[in-house]
Design goal:
- Strand 6, helix 4 and strand 7 form a beta-alpha-beta unit.
- The chain starts with 10 loop residues before the first strand and ends in a 5-residue tail after the last strand.
- With 234 residues, it is α/β, with parallel strands linked by helices.
- Strands 1-9-8-7-6-2-3 form a seven-stranded mixed beta sheet, sandwiched between helices. Strands 4-5 form a two-stranded antiparallel sheet. A two-stranded antiparallel sheet has the order 10-11.
- The chain is built from eight helices and eleven strands.
Amino acid sequence: MDGWNFDKNELVMSNGIIPALYEMVEYICKPDEKVLFLTPSYAYFKYAADFNKREYICSDQVYNEGYYTIDFDDFEKKAAEEKTTLFIFCHPHNPSGRIWREDELKKLAKIIERYHLWVISDEIHCDLIRLHQKHIPMGKIMPDYQRLITAMAPSKTFNLAGMMISNLIIRDEKILKLAHDTESPIFSYNSEIELSAVVNLVYLAARDRYHIEREDKAGEGYVDFIFYPERKGA
């Protein structure tokens, strides 16, 4: 993960990023506080706010000939609002497909830190990137920021959504304790046996069912990893 490491004690297993978002919005935001995200946006960011009866605000990205960029002036204006508490960040971005550059991430990080926002960085698409692109975890950009929660899962990369397994990397001790102590089934994968089983299943899915090929169509770099079923005897 581009040289990024984290303390294993910060790792919490969940039965999906969406259920975890629903739970985390309630943990982090008081009833009169707001959730911020970039639009266009994955709909479940809004649904997580709606479910918890929290107001949400949107910072529209700038669209130019098929390419989206962040309007940093607008984002900072929304982040500076007194009741804005949480920023849910899609990284890489769904639905635009943007792989955020390091300079963009650093600029976002400065604004987040300036206004002491919580940030949930949804990095579920981090393995599905185009050729010549690089995913840089928000955890690497903000190595000491305690209000950062990173969310990842094998479901997109290996088509394992049916397993309902994801992981959260939580730095804040209070939120980490809530995640561990909650009676909600959302945080249910906490044993080493369950974790080991999931890791092995992901590995076997990649090794036994697929081989991976790189393809760069006409040098355009539109496709990175292509998965093909094994052909016996081929």
